[in-house]
Structures are given as structure tokens and as C-alpha cells.
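Allow me, if you will, to draw on your knowledge of protein folds for a short while. I have a record of one protein: its chain in single-letter code and its fold written as C-alpha cells. I should value your view on which stretches of the chain appear to form regular backbone elements. Thank you for your consideration; the sequence and its C-alpha cells are set out here:
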Amino acid sequence: MTGGRPGALDGPAAAPEHPARPTTPAPADAAVPPSPADRPRPLHEPDPYSTPPYGGPGPWAPAPPVQHPVTTPAHGTPAHGTAPPAPAPAAPAPWQRYDPWSAAPLQQTGAAVETREQRRRRGRRVLVAGAAVIALVAGGIGGVVGAYLEREGGIGGGGVELPQAGAESHTRPKDSVAGIAASALPGVVTLHVRGSEGAGTGTGFVLDGKGHILTNNHVVEPAGTGGEISVTFSGGETARAKVIGRDSGYDLAVVKVSRVRGLKPLPLGNSENVQVGDPVVAIGAPFDLANTVTSGIISAKERPITAGGEKGDGSDVSYVNALQTDAPINPGNSGGPLVDSKARVIGINSAIRSADGGSESEGGQSGSIGLGFAIPINQGKRVAEELINTGRATHPVIGVTIDKRFTGDGARIARKSQNGGPAVTRGGPGAEAGLRPGDVITEVDGRRVHSGDELIVKVRAHRPGDRLELTLERGGDERTVTLVLGSASGD
């Protein structure tokens, strides 16, 4: 150890690990605060550079280090030996809070002096960073507010958004009305007829892939012999059609389109299997509203009806042992299909009952009142086959003339025919079965007959060659006879 101030170390004073923080010298008589090793360690070691409040050392600040004379390189290095007496230390400058907007340089002993330009640059950086943060926060808040306003209908709740079911499959069960309609509609057509006898609209349905279409006779009748028939399919395609054959007695007709691809024939059911109460769907073009679908049930079977008769000579009267339905049928539905739950045709919609008890042709009110009638498909199939194969349909007959003036129960055979000849045709089915003028036929195959028209309906529901059992009254006695139906050509 060399000479010098007692307690001084040999050689240059060791520089502290961190720059010394200026402190206010404690009075000579003040107690020396304990060193950091003498006191409990706080939970977090104090930062030796942290600024204590109000510029003074904090309660946990370390004791001031021993001061040694230090000469900056500009003033030389102290020589070895006895150090000159240290000058009295100047009063250390108090710690100041950093003010980025202050024009005065930062006063801090042992630290580099920050210039005004550096403070300005730092201030700009702080300002730019703050603006960026504000922009990000504002953008996030704006997005949240925008989403809320969109959901709630805008400021003030002016818009309304109602709950709604999501998208669902368009597929429906095959036996539902929608499923039946989807299956049958492609085979249904709308007919527009124009000719010398007028114009009209009706419905028909495709029978086969050759272009044959079945409809009512009264639908195509206005075309006459030189008229025009236009067929419109469910998809909107149109084609010209020509009449293959028609029959007023059955009120059925077949027309044909040519060079049409993608035809969708409808499957034919069996009208003998139909029961009262069975669900049915009617498809047609009521009042020219194509592809109209209505539904209902079978209200009755074997309902004897007559329709037509506009000419007054009876030649255009049709006799139908009809299926009755409450499915709405209106003008324009004529000729359209009545289908069952498997989309099979069981009838051809042909007639309606009007509210005032008359038909539309008789001046009655048009429109459905839930009383519609369809030709059974078993009868329609037979007639359609004959019209396609020969151009004409055959009618089953019993070879007798019916007395239309009879008002009793049953069908009475007239005394003479309309032309004055015999009422029972010689050699006909009735004559061979033993029928006589004046006999009253009361049953056909065990089913009651109440009028002459009803007898004709029952007979025409069969084919020529079918065997019938008739119950009749003669002179107060009841007897039963059997006959084989004959055949007559229709118009």
C-alpha cells in the first residue's frame, strides 16, 4: 500500500459497475445507513437507475460509494504517490423529470447531454407511435360498432330483420301431394284449340312415347275438320297436334304430336281398385292456368252422369259411370288426369256440377263447388286403344230402345223405336235373352238401376262381348236373364 489518504487503494480507483448517482451528502453526524447486504432483500431488487421521488435517494437506495479523485484524460492522469488533496465536491445537480418539450438540455451527472433535435425526433416518434395505436384501436372499435349496427338495423333501429327458416331440401315423399305433382306434371299438357266452331282451352296427358295424348272430345271438338290444335308441355315447349280419333258417346279423343323428344307418359292405374275416401290429385289448366294442381278424395264411385247434349239431337251426349271427387275442377281442367297416391291415372276429369244445379253449357254458374266427375281410366284405356288402332270406338249395346218418358223406378223398354220400328232389335242381344217391350229393368249384375240413362251408363261401362245379368219386372213378376253385349260403332 502506498502513501495517500488513509483507506485509499493503490492505483487508480476502480470504476463502479454502474455510474454513480449524485446524492446529497449526509451531515457528518448523521448515522450511516446500513448497506444493502445488511437489510432484507425486497421482493424485487430496486433499480439503481430508478428515479426516487422528488430527486432524493429512495429508502432502499444503496449507500454512496467512497469518492476517489478522478482526473479526466483531458487533464492528465494522477501520478503515483501521495495524491493531492481532493477539492471540495461541488453540489450535485438535482435529478430532474424529463420533459420532451423542454428547451433546456437534460441535466444529469455522468450521462450524455440530449440535444434539442434529438428530443424533437424522439417526440415525433412517440407521436407517430401513439397515432398508430389510436388508429388501430379506432379501427377495431369501428368494426365492432359497424357489425352491431348492421345486425341491429342501423342507428335508431330503423331496419327490421325477421327470423326465417333456412334452406331445406326440395325433395318430398313420393306419396305426398307435392311428390305426386312432381312425378305427374311432366306428362300433362295444355291444349289450345281454334277452328270454325270456336276456340277453347283444355288439358290432356301423354299416353306413350309415340306422341299420343288423351283428352276429352269436347276439348278438341271446336277444331272441327280444319282447325288448329296447339299442345303446350309443362316445361313450356309447344307443338302442333292432329286428331287421331274421337268419340262423343264416351267424350274421349286422342291427338298426336310428332317429332317431340323427351315425352313423359303417365302410368295408368286400375279404376276397379279405387275406394271411396282414397286421396287423389287433379292436374290441369283451369281458365288457362297451366300446371295447376288440386287435391281431394274420391267422394263416390259409379256415379251415373250424362254430359253434353248441346246440339239437342242427343248425338253428342256422353254417358259416364263416373268417379266423383271433391278435388277442385274448373273449366280448362277437362281432359286432365285424376291420379292416385302413386301418381297413376285413375280417371279423366270431364264434368263439374254447378252451384245452381245446371252445367256450364246449360247456363249454370261455372267454377268448382266440390262436385267433379272423371271417366274411369279402365273405360278410357279401352276407348283410347280403339281410337289409336282404328280411329273409332265401339259401344256395347243390348239391342233395345229405352222409354225416356218413363218416370218410375228402373228403365222401361219402349213399345216402339224412335223410327217406328220394333223396340227390341231382331236378332240382337236383348231379343236372344228374351226381353220384351214394356219390361222394366231394375238391376244390372245385382246393382240397382233407377232410370234409362243409368242403364245406358251401366252398359257402356263394359266391353262388347261382356256377359251381363239383368233383373226385370214383367206383369208384376220379377225374373232374371243373361245376355252377351253386342257392339256398335260410335261417331
Q: What stands out?
A: The two ends are 152 Å apart (CA to CA).
